[in-house]
Each structure stands twice: as structure tokens, then as C-alpha cells.
Design goal:
Elements: H1 2-7, H2 14-17, E1 22-26, E2 29-32, E3 37-40, H3 43-46, H4 55-66, H5 79-93, E4 101-104, H6 109-124, E5 129-132, H7 141-145, H8 150-153, E6 163-166, H9 178-187, E7 198-201, E8 204-205, E9 211-212, H10 215-227, E10 231-235, E11 259-262, E12 274-277, H11 297-306, H12 314-336, E13 343-347, E14 350-354, H13 360-370, E15 373-374, E16 376-378, E17 384-387, H14 395-420
């Protein structure tokens, strides 16, 4: 780790939480240079839905490169792009009766969000955008402006105007309908909220603490957008690509977003980001929004292979099976440690376990890492342990990882109790 500490910027984050040098990985497992095995409940922050080094993707990539396939091509036509677009249409769009134009932005999720915001403002001729409390959309200037967390915003020194924040579903508890709250602001000509070009939201706020919007709320937001001629942008960067049990996170609600952003797992572990937009919104002039790495031919090759998981219903059934295991085990853990008042959140294979006690979530994840589990936290207070196992995780590995969480909580409770008795000092540096 010496060279990391010597040369890499202080901004490094995950290496502080997982202080080892990883060397190899396969499916749902990571291995460090000492050969220690770790179960991966992090999956590259949702980038590795189909596992580490998925053999289908690796074989296709090796063959492509050995045949001198195009690696970099800007937005020129390549065989890899043609094959990917055809596969994406045949497997994802057509079966869902979805008509969207596809734009390849720069290679990361924030690039897709920036692109979506830019086209929405250009089409509608308005500058304001409505975003939501606890939302996270990226850390470049435009996407940061629609991100709620003060940790990322406070010292950015950017112009954060032209964004209005509204309360997300459940922000005030169950008694207040925040969709109607937003409608009131738009109806009132003296509310101070300018008519926006777009509303941007995540159907499940992953970084925000695994906050799940109800289907009813999403449909109300969509109706408000239709009533006021506002574009609806769904950010599916982290929670798309099957993470919630369906390819797009919004499918159970029945809504039809005007614009969708995708990244992370759409590239099968390689950098790729996409913007889907209704055809009539595609009003760009050629070259009006560019980027050296818009599209990634290696990601096209890998993704074309892994989209085959969606060619039949078996994969969705397997996701449902794993979801039930994850949910049942987390509920059992919450019941076992009733005095901690743990809260289970999520849908599909994104789940959260909230710890009301300050510092406890951090201590549990650190304990879990020592026991061979890589898992992170989310939420403005870092009080929610976030479960993001690969979608292809084996049942035995999933259960083993959940057992580590159980053991880690027990160890932290024991340390806490010892501290209260004056026999142990709890390490609070995790927060």
C-alpha cells in the first residue's frame, strides 16, 4: 500500500475502507495479494451486475482483440457498435415496446446525466430543473447541481442555480404526499419555483440511503410532468440493468420516462454510458455534443454477450429467488437484533440495513471486511449498509455473506456492551 499512499491523491476513498491490494476476481469473489478471499457485496458500486470476469464477456473480448477489432472509434460506425445496438433493440427495447433513440455520451454516469440535462433544457427552452432530496446524479458541474448531498456540494464553488429541490417520496413520513406538494409549487405562480424543463429522479435512491419510491408516487410525478409539459428523466445508472429485478427500475410502476440514463453495468464492467430519449427529443445538430470516448467498442462487445441473460425468463426468476433470500435473511437479522431498531429497505438485489446508532454501520462494515466481506454504506449520515451483490451470485455465497453480516453485528454489539462496562474502547474512526 506504500505506493498508493505516496502517490495517489487524498481524494481516494474505497481503498481506505478496504485496505488491501486486490489481485484477482471471479464471479462474486475478490482475492488480495496474500490470497485472502473476499465475498463482494459491492460489485463496483453496481458496475459488476454480471460478476467479475464473466467468462462469456472475457471470451468475446479476447477474440475481438486477437482479430484486431476497433478499440477506439469516436462515434464512427463499427461492427461492435452495430452488433450492440441490434442486440439492445432486440433484447431490451422491442420486447418492452419502447421507442427511444440512443446517444452515447462520455463513458461514465455523470456524462449521461449532463447530456440528459442539456438536451432537456435545449428542447424545452427553459433552464430550471427539479431534483429531489437525497438524490445523487454525479459530481461534474451539472449533475452535482441536481445532487442533494451537502458533502459533495458545499465546497464545489460552482453556480448551483437553475435547480429546484423537492422532497422525495416519504421524506416527511407517510402522512404527506410529496407529489402533491410539488404540484402545488408548480400551480402557484408566486411559489418562486420556475417552470422546469425537466424533473430528474432515481426510482430507488442508492447513494441516498436505499430510499424506494412507490409506484403510485412515480405515476403521480409522471402525470404532473405531462400536465405541465415537463420532461421526465429517470436516472437508472446504478439501479438499472436488472438491479431491482427488472431491466429498468421503473418497469413495475408502468411509467414511460422521456429520457433514461444508463451506465455502470450496461458496459459489462467496462466504461460505457448511454442516454435514451424519445425520438422527437433528438434535436441535436451533428457534433453539437461530443466526447473523445463517446461509446466504447470493448464495452459494446462485452455487453452484447451479457445482454443475452435477458433473452428468456430464467434470469428474472433467478433474480426473484435471490431477492427473497436477501430480504428474508435481512429481516431475520433485524428481528434478531431488535434492540438496535434496524430497518430493512430496498427491492430486487439492492437492499439497505439502516442503523440508527451513530457509527454502528461503519463499525459493522469494517468488521465484515476483516471477516472477508466487501460491503459499503450509503445515506447522508452513512448509516445504511448497502447490499449490492452481483446479480449472478451463487446462493451459497449469498448466504455466506449474509452470515458474515450477522456475525459482524454480533461482534460490534459485544464490543459496544464491553465499552459500556468500561472494558473496551469502541473505534469510532469509521465515521
Amino acid at each position: 500500500m506504500r505506493i498508493i499512499e505516496q502517490l495517489e491523491s487524498q481524494v481516494r476513498s474505497y481503498v481506505r475502507h478496504f485496505p488491501t491490494v486486490f489481485k484477482t476476481a471471479k464471479w462474486s469473489m475478490l482475492y488480495d495479494e496474500q490470497g485472502k478471499e473476499y465475498i463482494d457485496f459491492f460489485a463496483g458500486a453496481g458496475t459488476l451486475n454480471y460478476g467479475h470476469n464473466n467468462p462469456a464477456a472475457i471470451s468475446a473480448l479476447i477474440e475481438y482483440m486477437q482479430n484486431d477489432g476497433i478499440i477506439h472509434g469516436l462515434d464512427m460506425a463499427t461492427t461492435a457498435k452495430v452488433n450492440f445496438l441490434q442486440k439492445f433493440y432486440d433484447t431490451i427495447l422491442a420486447p418492452r415496446h419502447m421507442e427511444y433513440k440512443v446517444q452515447f455520451s462520455g463513458p461514465t454516469g455523470t456524462n449521461a446525466v449532463e447530456t440528459a440535462l442539456k438536451i432537456a433544457r435545449m428542447v424545452k427552452g427553459r433552464s430550471n430543473v427539479i431534483a429531489f432530496t437525497n438524490g445523487f446524479h454525479g459530481l461534474t458541474m451539472g449533475s452535482m447541481a441536481v445532487t442533494g448531498n451537502a458533502f459533495y456540494r458545499d465546497e464545489a464553488f460552482i453556480n448551483r442555480t437553475n435547480v429546484s429541490f423537492m422532497p422525495y417520496d416519504g421524506y416527511f413520513g407517510d402522512g404527506i404526499n410529496t407529489a402533491q406538494y410539488m404540484r402545488k409549487f408548480l400551480e402557484d405562480q408566486s411559489s418562486g419555483v420556475d417552470l422546469p424543463a425537466a424533473v430528474i429522479l432515481e426510482t430507488i435512491q442508492a447513494e441516498g440511503g436505499i430510499n424506494v419510491a412507490s409506484s403510485e408516487w412515480l405515476r403521480e410525478i409522471e402525470q404532473i410532468c405531462r400536465d405541465f409539459d415537463i420532461l421526465l428523466i429517470v436516472d437508472d445508472v446504478q439501479i438499472g440493468n436488472g438491479r431491482t429485478g427488472t431491466f429498468f427500475s421503473f418497469e413495475p410502476s408502468g411509467i414511460n420516462p422521456d429520457i433514461i440514463t444508463l451506465s455502470k453495468s450496461i458496459g459489462a464492467g467496462l466504461p460505457l454510458a448511454m442516454v435514451l430519449m424519445r425520438p422527437e427529443l433528438d434535436q441535436w445538430k451533428p457534433g453539437e455534443h461530443t466526447g473523445t470516448f463517446r461509446g466504447n467498442n470493448l464495452a459494446f462487445v462485452a455487453s452484447t454477450e451479457l445482454l443475452s441473460y435477458w433473452d428468456n425468463g430464467d434470469f428474472i426468476e433467478a433474480l426473484s429467488f435471490r431477492e427473497k433470500i436477501l430480504r428474508d435473511e435481512l429481516e431475520a437479522i433485524a428481528n434478531k437484533y431488535a434492540d438496535l431498531e434496524l430497518e430493512v429497505r430496498g427491492r430486487g438485489l439492492i437492499a439497505g440495513l439502516r442503523f440508527p446508532q451513530q457509527g454502528m454501520a461503519g463499525n459493522v462494515t469494517s468488521e465484515a471486511f476483516e471477516r472477508g466481506l466487501v460491503i459499503e454504506r450509503s445515506g447522508a449520515e452513512h448509516d445504511v449498509i448497502k447490499f449490492l451483490p452481483p446479480l449472478v451470485i451463487e446462493e451459497e455465497v449469498l448466504r455466506r455473506g449474509l452470515a458474515i453480516i450477522d456475525e459482524s453485528i454480533a461482534a460490534c454489539v459485544e464490543k459496544r456492551d464491553s465499552m459500556l462496562k468500561g472494558t473496551y474502547t469502541l473505534d469510532s474512526e469509521n465515521d
